[in-house]
Amino acid sequence: MSSFDERENAFETEFAHREESKVRVRERAVASLAQWAARRLGRSAAAAKVLTQEVLEADVASPTVEPTIDRIVADLAPVGIPKQEVWQAMHRFLAEAEVAERSGRPWRELVRGKFTLPELENGLEALQNGALVQIDRADYERLFGLNDVALGRLRNFARSHQCIVSFADTIVLFRKHIAPVEEGLDPQQ
């Protein structure tokens, strides 16, 4: 094989990889948007899963994301969420999906839902490095309280489960962060 053929194959492979990555990013962002919409509508986890599947199937048929946005806006019309807010959410989810794709973080490892403290502890213990657990702000307040002491309690809880905690407007995210063990170092020292 000539060097020209090798370069041509390399470019084709790189192009295919970039296109597959774009598809995964869009799929992840659209799924996150559908789950966001389901939460805004107050749907159950099962209904959110159905909505997400329907939106993903419809999105595959369109070369642009505009019909998907229109679908979500129509679904959210009863609760009065404007198209601009849906677009803002979509842009945020696209940015998050791009970061997740570049970091190689698995998509299937985002766990959402209402938790009791033991369920949250079990969920965090079972996570792989880089995976996420999302809880609603109301659940956070119910589990940890709503004062300055609660924030410290939450951070200690996250640290004890090898997680980093971050806050958004209506959610709290726990990201599993297991520090790599350096060779030659004994953790017992």
TrEMBL record:
Species of provenance: Bradyrhizobium forestalis
InterPro entries reported for this sequence: ATPase_inh_sub_z, ATPase_inh_sub_z_sf
Gene3D superfamilies named in the record: Domain of unknown function DUF1476 (1.10.790.20)
Pfam families reported in the protein's UniProt record: ATPaseInh_sub_z
Name recorded for this polypeptide: DUF1476 domain-containing protein
